[in-house]
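May I ask for whichever protein you like with its backbone structure tokens?
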Amino acid sequence: MNQESRRAPNPTLDALKMITVYFTVGMLWILLSDRLLSWLVSDPAVVAQIQLYKGWFYVVVTAAVFFVIIPRRIGQYKEAFDSANRTIAELDEANQRLQEAETELVTIAYSDALTRLANRTMLEATVSDLIARSRNEEIRFALLYFDIDNFKHINETMGHETGDKLLQAIALDLKTDIAEENAFAR
């Protein structure tokens, strides 16, 4: 990739360059060709006819030069625009992955992996919040604690897999049978 295609396109600077080149070449063409023409031809009718062809020649040459320059620049602008769009799309995808990872991290940090109930950290935060709200807003709440008697015996006699399934079943029953606004933790 050459130096010119690596630099960022600047439409204003490019337009200024094209106008400068067009103006400079045009002025030189007019001044030098008129002087050369006056040295070579003395008949005013022939000079007028040659000046007409000279004008058309300049217009055709200018159009050809612009035909080469403008598409190249438009291609560079399109490439820069496409690159920016690709970058935006990549950033959107990365942002989406980060949001999903953040959601997963919050889930891991505040819930029990086996039952997907809130874990002890989340329970402590919820109870602290409820205590503060009950002091300020005069709300009431209750905390119910229960234990599964002889759960160690279930794990030892029937296996940890059975104990895990029992905990999952109890968690599912709590989630489905008790109102959603209540909090559960393991």
Observations:
- The longest helix spans residues 44-110.
- The mean pLDDT is 86.
